[in-house]
Design a protein that fits this description.
Number of domains: 2
Number of helices: 9
Radius of gyration: 27 Å
InterPro entries: MrpF/PhaF-like
Distance between the termini: 106 Å
Membrane topology: Multi-pass membrane protein
Keywords: Cell membrane, Membrane, Transmembrane, Transmembrane helix
Largest sheet: none
Main location: membrane
GO cellular component, one term: plasma membrane
Length: 197
């Protein structure tokens, strides 16, 4: 019995298990032809354009928003905080597509809910100061809506039909709706009777 085990074990020694040597050669050949990713199970990053767009959005959108939130008058700080949450949320969506990580879309969903609510809290707490010097946010509201559509629509096309598409549409709707509500709150809502006539 011992010699039978040794014979069987000896038959499997070159590849470790039956059939693994041939599989390894096949994987190497596929990798050489470019049909598989690199060794170790890692897949190459195919979302480079999405990652570049996320980087550009963070550099061109978040850096000025953070500078506006850190300096200047109060009206600019609150509007810049609202813009920063929008930019980070859109960057999460682009990073989710670029890295192939759906969990980033969940982060964007939470931020799309919490960001405008945070702006509304600031508006409520700083109402007296913002009433004296209200922010001008009409252009920012329009720009945020256009930017949201410009990011979400290509992501929806790339995602295709399914649950992920519905999630992207919900995040986009929350971003547009939240920014409209926050812009109305920042702008003081409807003009007062004394200002109309």
């Amino acid at each position: 019995m011992g010699s039978a085990r040794a014979a069987v074990a000896g038959a499997h020694r070159p590849g470790g298990r039956p059939g693994t040597a041939g599989r390894r050669r096949g994987r190497r050949a596929e990798r050489a032809r470019g049909l598989r990713g690199p060794a170790g199970g890692e897949r190459p990053v195919t979302g480079l354009p999405w990652l570049a767009a996320a980087f550009a959005l963070l550099v061109l959108g978040l850096v000025p928003a953070l500078a506006g939130a850190a300096t200047g008058p109060l009206r600019r700080r609150v509007a810049a905080q609202n813009t920063a949450t929008l930019v980070v949320c859109l960057a999460f969506l682009l990073l989710a597509q670029g890295y192939g990580r759906p969990s980033y879309v969940d982060l964007a969903l939470v931020l799309a809910l919490v960001g405008p609510a945070g702006t509304l809290v600031y508006v409520r707490l700083l109402a007296a100061d913002l009433e004296r010097d209200p922010p001008r946010v009409r252009g920012a509201a329009l720009a945020s809506g256009v930017l949201t559509v410009a990011v979400v629509v290509p992501l929806c096309v790339a995602t295709g039909p399914g649950r992920a598409l519905v999630k992207l549409l919900v995040v986009g709707a929350l971003l547009v709706g939240g920014n409209v509500v926050a812009s109305v709150a920042l702008g003081g809502g409807e003009p007062k009777e004394a200002e109309r006539g």
